[in-house]
Amino acid sequence: MPPDPNDCDSPLHDQRLIPLETARERMLAACPTPTTVERLPLDRCLGRVLATALVATLDLPPFANSAMDGYAVRSEDCAGDAAVALRLIGRSAAGAPFAGRLEPGTCLRILTGAALPDGADAVVIQEAASLRPDGRVSLPGGIRAGANVRWPGEDLRRGDPAVEPGRRLMPAQIAAAAALGRESLEVWRRPRVAFFSTGDELSPLGSRLEPGQIFDSNRPMVRALLERIGVEPIDLGVVEDSRAAIRAALSLAAGSGDAVLTTGGVSVGDADYVREEVAGLGELNLWRIAMKPGKPLAFGRIETARFFGLPGNPVSALVTFYQLVAPALRRMGGAEAVAPLQLSARLTEPIAKKPGRVEFQRGRLRPTPDGELEVAAAGGQGSHVMSSLSAADCFIVLPAESGDHPAGTRVTVQPFSGLV
Ligand code: AMP
Ligand code: MG
To answer: Which domains are seen in the chain, by residue range?
Structure first.
């Protein structure tokens, strides 16, 4: 019998699959970068992508100040080996600078963040000092110029780039903008992604399941995935398995979003109409990737909208989203390319695998007492198995050409927390 191309295990079948890296590169190349900038108040910038570099408009710190609670001194007064006693002339606290100048032989009480007075060039920590009844302060010798001082501009100089464009704004970048006094930032408009589920078996949450029905778990998952990567979701509901309904929904979606994302209907079943309807309305550029799960992923274009057709199986949908769709949507949102965090871990149990497709198994990652990482499959690896997906905390990435992995093998893992 000739090899059957639809049999997953046939060599003929696998030859027609697109390698994952090739698919990722082609999808990225086919996705446009954004052109519309929005100015947003800082308190609405979390998770958005910076469009215009944040440039320092002042020095940080803006003035010389103390890194510690203690006494401001002229280092030349305490540079020798012997301890000294300096006359205390006043105090500089954060927000309440000392107006005068520090003359030779004097010192000033100073608190963390307080301006260093003119004349001073070092701070002695209070634990090393003692205030005497005669109003002098005993201080150790050996104090160097610059000790415990934060100089103006040592963090950022006026004109320095503080955050580069393309960076997704997280609490640290919000703080950087605020430290520079910025009340608003220019960010890229978020890509709008119109999405729907396909399948006559799907029942909305809150309904009673009729025989043969399942709940539509993909739509809430897709919304969560889209929100997680910072795009604007447009939920178009569930669409029945008919050509006309799918065509209408694809048209509507293409008119309302920068991208269209569907789940289901891209495989080889009788009711899988999505690919043909995409090809009829626009073009289908990619289909069938050498990955497991996720083989039926489809990519194309309808009018100006990019099309992502995720497989219906929930695990396949999640894996293809992270591995292929997220990088493409991040590019459409103006974000710099960032690879997922990958770590090396030791398998505690063997994993059986056939060469041909890169596999993303659901795993559980554990640190060992000696600082190693160990990983094991999280449970059943069928692409419909939700329990192992929600129990997992990482993908175990097994290269396409590899076969069985005995226990003890080092494998690459992608922690879910590092997937962006
Ligand atoms: P399909 O790709 O449409 O052939 O679907 C493959 C498998 O995924 C079938 O078992 C479907 O019932 C299931 N499936 C499809 N869409 C969804 C969904 N929205 N939620 C949960 N399961 C789904
Ligand atoms: Mg279906």
So the answer is: 13-36+190-332 (3.40.980.10), 37-60+154-188 (3.90.105.10), 65-150 (2.170.190.11), 343-418 (2.40.340.10)
Q: Rounded to 10 degrees, what is the CA torsion of 318, 319, 320, 324?
A: 110
pLDDT score, position 8 = 52
Q: Which residues of the chain have pLDDT under 70?
A: 1-15
Q: Is residue 203 in contact with ligand 1, taking CB distance under 6 Å? A: no
Does 294 sit in the ligand 1 pocket, CB within 6 Å? no
Which H helix or E strand runs over 84? Answer: strand 84-92
The pLDDT of residue 4 is 52
User: Is 265 near ligand 1, meaning CB less than 6 Å away?
Assistant: yes
Ligand 1 center–CA 265 separation, angstroms = 8
d(CA 29, CA 202): 34
Q: Indicate if ligand 1 lies below 6 Å from the C-beta of 408.
A: no
pLDDT value of residue 7:
54
Q: Is 106 in the pocket of ligand 1 (CB under 6 A)?
A: no
Q: Are 312 and 268 in contact (CB under 8 A)?
A: no
Instruction: Give the residue whose CA is nearest to atom 16 of ligand 1.
Output: 312
Ligand 1 centroid distance, CA of 215 (Å): 10
Ligand 2 midpoint to CA 200 (Å): 7
Query: Rounded to the nearest whole angstrom, what is the distance from the C-alpha of residue 313 to the centroid of ligand 1?
Result: 5
Copy the structure tokens of residue 151: 């100089």
Ligand 2 centroid to residue 198 C-alpha, Å: 6
Residues in the chain: 420
Could you report the per-residue pLDDT of 36-78, keeping only the tens digit for each?
999 999 999 999 999 999 999 999 999 999 999 999 999 999 9
Kindly list the distances between the CA atom of residue 97 and the CA atoms of 106, 110, 115, in Å, as whole numbers in the listed order: 17, 9, 6
Distance of CA 17 to the CA centre of its chain: 29
CB of 309 closer than 6 angstroms to any ligand 1 atom: no
Whose Cα sits closest to atom 15 in ligand 1?
312
pLDDT tens, position by position, 182-220: 999 999 999 999 999 999 999 999 999 999 999 999 999
Please report the beta strands in 126-271, taking only residues with DSSP state E, as ranges in sequence order.
130-131, 136-139, 149-150, 161-163, 184-188, 192-198, 202-203, 214-215, 232-239, 259-263
Written as one letter, the residue type at 277 is E
